[in-house]
Specification:
- The protein is α/β, with parallel strands linked by helices.
- The protein is 42% helix and 16% strand.
- The protein is built from 13 helices and 11 strands.
- The strands form 2 sheets. Strands 8-7-9-10-6-11 form a 6-stranded parallel β-sheet, with helices on both faces.
- β4 and β5 form a beta hairpin.
- α7 crosses α8 and α10 packs across α11.
- The longest helix has 19 residues.
Length: 368
């Protein structure tokens, strides 16, 4: 079993200081026995620093160093070991720039986050992984150590469970890896499934065909597909059944060979539905199951099939379990704080905590 965790980096305070001319940087109070090192930048300076220098601030706060840019040279100051790490990261960035790689601000920030959190990681491993990946019209790279392990687990294992809060890239990266497997001919089709459960609302009668009725539930999966594939190509794939988006109920009785199968929002499956899905896997196929066990929309008294599956099959060899938390959230920065605030509120509010415990106990009761 594979499990992924993410440690929170220590936060430190930086003081902005001014430098004459074209020099910019930050000076940080630190040990008097610090060392300095200068790195010549090969290019991509604006992308390296990012908007309002957010990228280099990330490097400084994560490694507890200070930097100063003078023309195309960057001076790093801090503890010797940390300065060497920062210089090594910048040299790896230089090499990628020399080879013609062009990054935007967000991509550089993701690379720096990964490099500072995983000391043994080389940036080339992220930019050019061992197995070729082709995501259509998008260039997709992991934005956290857990996302990197998630993508590697999908390549290595035939079945991967991905559990964590919204915004951590569980579904998006699974769809991206499915598109890559299809375009590189590792599989012959993609099947995306979701349980058609209303999230705390009652939508009532929906007019139209069966497909039109279920499409609203599948919209997040379509959004991810349209983000990676040209509309014309995606429409052809959908018409030919090469890509299929369907409610979970449509999976019963099928054996899925040479397929990449994704079960999204798996926390809203029943025990019977989850067992049915897990036993659909055929030869030369992969399955990814994603879900957030803090957002279960099943009726009162029904246990989540995802929670049960984690207990039942979580330790089977050949199945990987990847756990995300708020540190892996890649949406707006406020989303991390919102998730943390709700966790704090639920742990400190007696009534809220009692209601949550009641729901969890109901979910753990056997279905009648």
């Amino acid at each position: 079993m594979a499990a992924c965790y993410n440690d929170d980096s220590e936060n430190i305070y930086l003081q902005e200081v001014s430098f004459p001319g074209s020099v910019r940087g930050r000076k940080m109070a630190g040990p008097t026995n610090s060392m300095k090192r200068t790195v010549q930048l090969a290019g991509g300076i604006e992308q390296l620093f990012g908007t309002l220098d957010e990228n280099v601030k990330l490097l400084e706060s994560s490694l507890r160093v200070s930097t100063q840019l003078n023309d195309d040279k960057i001076e790093i100051e801090g503890e010797a070991a940390q300065v060497e790490r920062a210089a090594r990261i910048l040299e790896q960035y230089n090499q990628l720039v020399r080879e013609g790689h062009v990054f935007n601000n967000g991509e550089v920030k993701a690379l720096l986050r990964l490099a500072t959190q995983e000391p043994d990681l080389a940036l080339r491993q992220v930019v050019a992984p061992a197995m070729p990946r082709h995501f259509g019209k998008k260039n997709i790279a992991p934005k956290s150590p857990n996302q990197r392990r998630y993508m590697e687990c999908i390549e290595k294992y035939d079945m991967v469970f991905s559990i964590g809060p919204g915004g951590t890239g569980k579904t998006y990266l699974a769809v991206a890896m499915a598109v890559s497997a299809l375009l590189t001919k590792q599989v012959h089709r993609i099947i995306l499934a979701r349980p058609a459960v209303e999230a705390g609302e009652r939508l009532g009668f929906l007019p139209g065909t069966i497909q039109q009725k279920v499409d609203p539930y599948m919209r997040p999966l379509y959004d991810a597909l349209y983000d990676m594939l040209d509309a014309d190509k995606l429409e052809r794939y959908l018409e030919k059944g090469i890509i299929e988006v369907a409610p979970l109920a449509f999976m019963r009785g099928r054996t899925l060979n040479e397929s990449f199968v994704i079960l999204d929002e798996a926390q809203n499956t029943t025990s019977e539905q989850m067992k049915m899905f897990l036993t659909r896997l055929g030869f030369d196929s992969k399955a990814v199951i994603t879900g957030d066990i803090t957002q279960i929309d099943l009726p009162t008294g029904r246990r989540s099939g995802l929670i049960e599956a984690i207990e039942v099959v979580g330790k089977i060899e050949g199945i990987a379990m990847v756990h995300f938390d708020e540190h892996d959230v890649v949406r707006h920065n406020l989303v991390q704080r919102i998730i943390r605030a709700y966790e704090t509120f639920e742990s400190t509010s007696p009534q809220r905590g009692a209601n949550k415990a009641s729901r969890e106990n109901e979910s753990n009761e056997p279905a009648k």
